[in-house]
Amino acid sequence: xxxxxxxxxxxxxSDVGVAKVQRGKQGQLILAFLAGAFIAFASEGSNMxxxxxxxxxxxxxxxxxLAGAVFGTGLMLVVVAGGELFTGNxxxxxxxxxxxxxxxxxxxxxxxxxxxxxxxxxxxxxxxxQSGLFNSGGNVLGGQTIKIAAYKTSLPFHSAFFLGIMCNxxxxxxxxxxxxxxxxxxxxxxxxxxxxxxxxSGFEHSVANMYYIPAGIWAKANAVWAxxxxxLPEQLENLNWLTLFTKNLIPVTLGNIVGGAGLVGAxxxxxxxxxx
Length: 276
Fold this sequence. Notes:
This protein has 276 residues and is an all-alpha fold. 82% of the residues lie in helices and 0% in strands. The chain starts with 5 loop residues before the first helix and ends with a helix.
């Protein structure tokens, strides 16, 4: 099966970045909404698959593996069906380093896509809360949704930052390897294994957290689900729209940028780009 070499992936990544920033704002926003929804679907599906395993120390690791196996579907949809995902778009840095686009174009794309991802994620989180599915497993899914969100909004800033770096290092490697493949099967396999590693490891993905935390914020209003979460009252109080940003999205997003734009995009550009 023919595949692009690392040097060819670098050039392809650069050209993809140019195409992304040249797309109109409406197209960027719609595709970002779709990508946010795709990642949210992957998030809720992985929770549904593994919620009963997470609460038992003997099966916790197995639950993470199962969640990782399901979660990869989100990036598969983004890569194959089409979508604009903020974390993957940190690779636009390669086009900037190649001087094919400006910093203004890069930042404009990142901001537009981030907003679109957030709206798409909120849309799925809201529908999940309205659907009644959080009653699944004797309210275990609702409780686990709150528990995950409470954990994410209790992370120290530096922990969330470093977890964000490691997450997007792997996510962008999944995108990078998918660019090596010239057929759909290769792209799917790249997403499945590498994303499975990121989820199993427990790293922090800003767009996934745009689902996890709002879903938990809305779910905690249900006393039955809140009780099933076994989360302490002070942790529930700390789970709110302010801490969504201050305790999680801000440090995780910064870490995601370092991991994707720096440790993948810039590092490969520095090592593979012929120097004149």
